[in-house]
Amino acid sequence: MTLPVDADGKATELRPFSCSATPHMLAFHLSWLSLFACFFSALSPPPLLPLIRDSLSLTDSQISLSAVASFSGVVLARLLIGPVCDLLGPRAATAAVSLSTAPFVFALSAVGSPEAFIAVRFFIGFSLAGFVSNQHWTSSLFSADVVGFANGVSAGWANTGCGAAQLLMPMVYSCVVAAFAGVPSSTAWRAAFFVPGALQTVTAIAVLVYGEDAPGRDTLKTKKPSKHVSKRNPKEAPFADVWEGLKDYIGWTLGLTYGYCYGVELTVNNVIAGYLYDRFDVGIRTAGVLAAVFGLMNLTLAGLLCVLLGRVGSVKATVGVMLGFSLFVQAASWAHVRGRSVRLQEIDWDDIGDDRKRRRGRRHDNSVDVLYRVQILQGDGHLSHGDNGRRGMFCGPSDEENSEDDYYSLLK
Q1: pTM of the entire structure?
Q2: I need a surface site. Which of 30, 140, 156, 358 has the fewest CB within 10 A?
Q3: For residues 179 and 174, what is the distance between their CA atoms, to the nearest angstrom?
Q4: CA 110, CA 187: separation in Å to the nearest integer?
Q5: Region Disordered: start and end of each range (predicted)?
């Protein structure tokens, strides 16, 4: 191993631009690339929605329903994938998620009705459960000194798949049209979905062939149970831990905050290309490029700047708001609690009605987002802590003494 490691074989350094430091950095890159492909697949339909809408005669409510469906299944899937990672290892879980959902990406090429389109997007959304295995895998590769940095870089790079889909899918469509003269638009957009399907499949195979859960660790061997589950059946322990996590009030608070933040992000990624296409009368490739500004710059204020999105009246001002929005949206998504926490997933909103209602709806929804997170600024000390000392964002630790069980328990 070319990286310095601790006693558990975990790397104590992260070299993001190195692939030669095996097995740590190779596994790191495979992990985020696989999740990148999943994000790319899940967000590949929105930039082509103006074309899909005309071909399948989609209504506004059906388009909204397809967006909600694409992220509904992942809520349950992310709860289930955690125990799968514990039982089989993150490498196998990552590959399983990608390979099991890739057929539905290819199936987008064959959909012939609004109902089929909504159903296929629902199952493609399961691929985003790979976020859990991505974080599990990265955490098993790097020590506590750098694991936060590693997790942030891995998921952040993977999340750019949303922007890459906005940018590349219209280009793939245009290439198909240019390469095959006279090809109908309804055929060209269908052919474009072979690209995300193939990307997801190839990255999953690479994970299986070249990936390693952790240095010297056999994925399928039973690991020594932790002190929290030592009295339980090892096969039942992961699911028991899910229940324990659901009783953690800190996890629920951070989960809801994460849901409001990430929900806004997912909503924007689902509607922004169509919004630009319809409101500013730009071409599908231009709409995709402009929408990609948000996804590709999505490094870190969901809510506050989004209130402005419905107020601006030009494409330049809209892009400027998206740039400011994208600087902060991931910052709230990455609220973290040491110990056992539960991340709840996507909260999505229906965008229905006329253009004015849609813009007003975005302002109202995201005003709620801003108000909800005011609680994090309060100093009751229930949201962030270190060494079991409670503190808020702007307050020091309290003097209250609690046992570990009392500290985490929601149901007493």
Answers
A1: 0.74
A2: 156
A3: 9
A4: 10
A5: 382-412
For residue 383, the tally of other CB atoms under 10 A from its CB is 20
Tell me the H-state helices in 125-236. Answer: 130-141, 147-179, 185-192, 194-210
Alpha helical stretches, state H, 48-111: 49-56, 60-88, 90-107
| Sequence letter at residue 275 | Y
pLDDT tens-digit readout, 200-218: 999 999 999 999 998 766 5
The maximal CA–CA distance of the chain, rounded, in angstroms, is 74
Among residues 94, 75, 182, which one has the least CA distance to residue 141? 94
Q: Which residue has the higher pLDDT, 290 or 402?
A: 290
By the 10 Å C-beta count (0-12 exposed, 13-18 middle, 19+ buried), 260 is classed as buried
Q: Are 227 and 65 in contact (CB under 8 A)?
A: no
Residue 167 has pLDDT above 70, yes or no: yes
H or E segment and range at residue 123: helix 114-124
> What span, in angstroms and rounded, lies between the C-alpha atoms of 21 and 3?
6
For residue 105, give Cα distances in angstroms to 195, 250, 300.
9, 36, 28
Residue with tokens 């926490």: 341
Tokens for 162, please give them. Answer: 């949303």
How many angstroms separate the CA atoms of 370 and 301, rounded? Answer: 9
Which residue is listed with tokens 């990609």? 292
Q: Chain centroid to CA 247: how far?
A: 24
**pLDDT per position as a tens digit, 47-56:** 999 999 999 9
